[in-house]
Amino acid sequence: MPSNDARILLQAAVPTAAAGVIAAVISGPVVGSKGAIGAIVAAVITILFMGIGLYVLQRTAKSLPHLFQAMGLMLYAAQILLLFIFLAAFKNTTLFHPRAFAFTLVGTTLVWIVAQTRAHMKAKILYVEPDSSTGAKAEKSGHSS
Predict the structure, then answer these.
(1) What separation in angstroms does the CA of 110 have from each of 61, 63, 65?
(2) Burial state string for 108-131 with b = 16 or more CB within 10 A and e = fewer than 16
(3) Average pLDDT over residues 31-36
(4) Which residue, 45, 74, 44, is CA-closest to 57?
């Protein structure tokens, strides 16, 4: 993973993990240990889903740049759909508190999106990769008359 990609992943994952810890600390006393477990599970799911999505998007940008924007839109729609499926699947679970899980899942997803947006805005990413052979003349294109 190139350094820019790793930096963006780190700048999005750390605030999301911090938000998950805060949610667990709040959920623990409010609804008990099951609330803290639900908050931690939600934070881990968010980091995994969004991290994998970022990785897939970066690979798409490098291999198929013409599909980057469409892939990004499709990827975010798929991630949100999968998160809602998780919410529906664990709605009546006894493993953890479902409301703490749901609120943390939504909150950490929003934190991830904001942090990733901020990381992209602050990144110094070149739009055009510089030519590796410096001083080489560009070839003429078109008809010369």
Answers:
(1) 23, 28, 26
(2) bbebbbebbeebeeeeeeeeeeee
(3) 91
(4) 74
pLDDT per position as a tens digit, 36-93: 999 999 999 999 999 998 888 888 888 888 888 888 889 889 988 988 888 888 888 8
Look up the pTM and report it.
0.76
Cβ neighbours for 26, distance < 8 A, ≥ 6 positions apart: 39
Q: Which pLDDT does position 87 carry in this prediction?
A: 81
Residue 84 identity: F
At a CB cut-off of 8 Å and minimum separation 6, what does 75 contact? 53, 56, 57
> Closest Cα to residue 83, out of 33, 44, 119?
44
Instruction: Name the one residue in this structure whose structure tokens are 């990827």.
Output: 75
The position carrying tokens 């099951």 is 34
Helices (H), the chain: 3-31, 33-63, 68-89, 98-122
Helices 33-63/68-89 angle, 10° precision: 160
